[in-house]
Amino acid sequence: MRVSASRLRALRGTGGPEPASPALNTRTRIKICGLTREADVDAAVEAGADAIGFVLYPKSARHVTPERAAALARRLPPFVTPVALLVHATPAERDAALAALPQALLQFHGDETPEDCRAAGRAYLRAVRMAPGVDLLDFASRFPDACGLLLDAHVESYGGSGKAFDWSLIPSGVPLPVVLSGGLHAANVIDGILQVRPWAVDVSSGVEAAKGIKDAAAMRRFCEAVREADARIADSEA
Fold first, then answer.
1. What is the pLDDT tens value at each position of the chain, 238 positions in all?
2. How far apart are CA 228 and CA 234, in angstroms?
3. I need a labelling partner for 132 at 20 to 30 A (CA). Which of 38, 74, 92, 185 fits?
4. How far is residue 174's CA from residue 149's CA, in Å, rounded to a whole number?
5. Could you list the active site residues?
6. Residue 238 and residue 229: Cα distance in Å, rounded?
7. Which residue blocks in 21-124 are alpha helix, DSSP H?
8. 231: Cβ–Cβ under 8 A, 6 or more apart, which residues?
């Protein structure tokens, strides 16, 4: 069941430097994206991931078919969310993903319009390719029904580049939950959480041995770093 954006904002900050009330502040959620193997799904869950992303974009090195994504998603325990990443999917491709992954949250990572996103009839994240000149507040206003905005680096490919962006480009008062992405790894995610105070963080290349091949130890270190950031925030707000 979809949780409204207003409810998410009540539970966590809205992006930008202003933290939520200490009484309402909760832990930073973790999404690990681009998984292709059973062992990696199991290791991500064990490390503490809240969501697992499956890339259904054929041009990605981390691409899996909807059928393969469904097989991997069946390994997920309750309360770990599968996420289906789409880039410029045709209606037929989108419908195949919906049929294969009926419980998945959708992530639109291309140039999809609000109408494209709504046509799926499913809760969704909208990715934003951050760069100087991007008006994030205007972008958010065009996708008011999104569950959140996933902020990634602006690169020629669509995500998974390992490139970070300038976090100071994120304005305060973003009216949707923010998922911080783009070049995150265990060594910088603490700084990202402390600066941005996102609802969630998203990692792919930062926990890989090779594209589509995750490193269990790296996933564990990343999740531990996120918890360290949360502990620092809790201490500062006590």
1. 233 444 344 334 444 444 433 334 579 999 999 999 999 999 999 999 999 999 999 999 999 999 999 999 999 999 999 999 999 999 999 999 999 999 999 999 999 999 999 999 999 999 999 999 999 999 999 999 999 999 999 766 555 567 899 999 999 999 999 999 999 999 999 999 999 999 999 999 999 999 999 999 999 999 999 999 999 999 998 7
2. 10
3. 185
4. 9
5. 33, 152
6. 14
7. 38-47, 66-73, 91-100, 114-119
8. none
**Cβ(32)–Cβ(203) under 8 Å?**
yes
d(C-alpha 135, C-alpha 173), whole Å = 12
Q: Structure tokens of 235?
A: 């201490």
Written as one letter, the residue type at 144 is P
Domain ranges of the chain: 5-237
